[in-house]
From TrEMBL:
GO terms for molecular function: peroxiredoxin activity. InterPro entries: AhpD-like, CMD-like. PANTHER family: 4-CARBOXYMUCONOLACTONE DECARBOXYLASE FAMILY PROTEIN (AFU_ORTHOLOGUE AFUA_6G11590) (PTHR34846). Transmembrane segments: none annotated. Residues 57-134 form the Carboxymuconolactone decarboxylase-like domain. Gene3D superfamilies: AhpD-like (1.20.1290.10). This is Carboxymuconolactone decarboxylase-like domain-containing protein.
Length: 205
């Protein structure tokens, strides 16, 4: 039995309906073969649990949208930051979705797999490398950031870039938490869809 079962349409509050519409709008920007709900209407990823906090769902989706619309980063740079987080967190649905979204962003399968394994992908531009390296450090960060690491990232990305990557990294750690309490897992990749493997250094406790 699902931990956060689908809420029947006739029982959805206005806030939950708004969240549904926001989620559908989000996925309209991604490849059409990505699945975000199963045949019973259960949403994968963070969405099934999100709908159970209807007082937060609209604000959360608005914040997530604004974070990912930052004009200071390219689509590729944003994707590198997301995958850096996923190299540190075992999140089945987000691994499923962003394996293919990374290809959609123009990365090769080899580059995508390297990034998911916590390795700087080969062939990146200098700024892209800086984004991935910073995001990976932030995903691992459990104490104040070293000044040397900050200055190195700032020299390429600027202060706004460092702060902007922190928003993306912390946002996807949030996604990871909401996804992993749901227990919904992920659909099987469709034929011809690329599926990266998770970082072998990740361990379950």
């Amino acid at each position: 039995m699902s931990r956060f079962p689908p809420i029947p349409e006739d029982q959805l509050s206005d806030a939950q309906k708004s969240a549904h519409n926001g989620i559908d709008s989000l996925f309209s920007r991604f490849p059409s073969y990505l699945i975000h709900k199963n045949a019973d209407g259960l949403m994968f990823g963070p969405y099934s649990s999100l709908l159970y906090t209807e007082d937060i769902s609209d604000s959360w989706l608005a914040l997530a949208s604004n974070v990912m619309r930052q004009q200071r980063f390219t689509f590729r740079e944003k994707e590198l930051a997301i995958i850096a987080v996923l190299s540190e967190y075992d999140v089945p649905y987000v691994l499923y979705a962003h394996s293919e979204i990374a290809i959609h962003a123009g990365f090769t399968k080899e580059q995508t797999q390297q990034a998911f394994h916590g390795q700087l992908p080969t062939g990146l531009e200098v700024r892209e490398s800086a984004v991935y390296n910073l995001a990976l450090k932030l995903a691992k960060l459990r104490s104040p950031m070293d000044d040397e690491d900050f200055q190195q990232a700032r020299s390429i990305l600027g202060k706004d870039g460092v702060a902007g990557i922190a928003h993306i990294v912390s946002g996807y750690i949030y996604v990871a938490m909401l996804s992993n309490i749901s227990g919904a897992g992920a659909p099987e990749p469709t034929e011809g869809m690329f599926q990266a493997t998770k970082n072998p250094n990740l361990t379950r406790h």
